[in-house]
Amino acid sequence: MARFSVIGTGNMGSAIAGLLERGGAEVTRVSRDETGSAPLGDVVVLAVPYPALAEIVKAYGSQLDGKVVVDITNPLNFETFDSLVVSADGSAAAEVAQAVPGARVLKAFNTNFAATLAGGTVGDAPTTVLVAGDDADAKQTLIDAITAGGESAVDAGSLSRARELEAIGFLQLTLAASEKIGWTAGFNLFR
Ligand SMILES: NC(=O)c1ccc[n+]([C@@H]2O[C@H](COP(=O)([O-])OP(=O)(O)OC[C@H]3O[C@@H](n4cnc5c(N)ncnc54)[C@H](OP(=O)(O)O)[C@@H]3O)[C@@H](O)[C@H]2O)c1
């Protein structure tokens, strides 16, 4: 089974690491102090704020070649809460892919609030993680690990879909911030 490293030990890092561990995966949790020096597993989840991505990618450089790198960020303008800070035809995930061309980049988890990953449900249904990326094997590795942890995961298409996933994450955040929904709620997929 693939070995996972989760960089970031906050709300999302803890929830994602817990989910993967429930599925029996070997997970290393990497704190801020260890970032850049901790050895990395086959799959690296960047559970950090969008502005930290560039620094982390730079710190690891070519060590990310061959890895599956998972971007979970919602790149919002948190001053206005009214726009994304990436270009209209781009995404944070596309920026990561451009910065580490030797890695297989996935977008995942950004449409799930941390509580729904930790608790495993949205309402009465299993939490569904949408996974986008250009490498089918990389996507399947992550989907299998999430499924093993008891949640649902769906291949949402190529990495180009990251733009749409970031739009969904943005909208969901604005709904929660304006108290239209709770932080334990959110969009889900029913099949
Ligand atoms: N919270 C959610 O429900 C949710 C949902 C979907 C997506 N997201 C996305 O998930 C990401 C993480 O959110 P979060 O809620 O988990 O935030 P958080 O609780 O604030 O945790 C952020 C983590 O990133 C670490 N970090 C910050 N800058 C770093 C750097 N330069 N190098 C290494 N580590 C660094 C922090 O370390 P320190 O503790 O030392 O500061 C902390 O462990 C964000 O991009 C957010 O948009 C969040």
Please provide a written account of the structure.
The protein has 191 residues and is an alpha/beta fold. It has a single domain (3-177), classed as NAD(P)-binding Rossmann-like Domain (Rossmann fold), CATH 3.40.50. The protein has six helices and nine strands; from the N terminus they run βαββαβαβαβββαβα. The strands form two sheets. A seven-stranded mixed beta sheet has the order 2-1-3-4-5-8-9, with helices on both faces. It has a two-stranded antiparallel ribbon with strand order 6-7. A hairpin with a 2-residue loop joins strand 6 and strand 7. The two termini are 27 Å apart. It binds NADP nicotinamide-adenine-dinucleotide phosphate. NADP nicotinamide-adenine-dinucleotide phosphate binds at residues 7-13, 32, 35, 47-50, 52, 55-56, 72-74, 110, 113-114, 169.
Rg over CA atoms, rounded to whole Å, is 15 Å
Biggest sheet character: 7 strands, mixed
**SS strand fraction:** 15-25%
Strand order of the largest sheet: 2-1-3-4-5-8-9
Number of domains: 1
The CATH class is identified as: Alpha Beta
Which structural class do you get from the secondary structure elements?
A: alpha/beta
Overall body shape: globular
Distance between the termini: 27 Å
Can you count the helices? 6
Order of helices and strands: EHEEHEHEHEEEHEH
* Mean pLDDT over the residues: 97
Helix proportion range? 25-40%
CATH architecture: 3-Layer(aba) Sandwich
Q: How many strand units?
A: 9
Give the CATH superfamily.
NAD(P)-binding Rossmann-like Domain
By CATH, the topology is: Rossmann fold
Bound molecules: NADP nicotinamide-adenine-dinucleotide phosphate
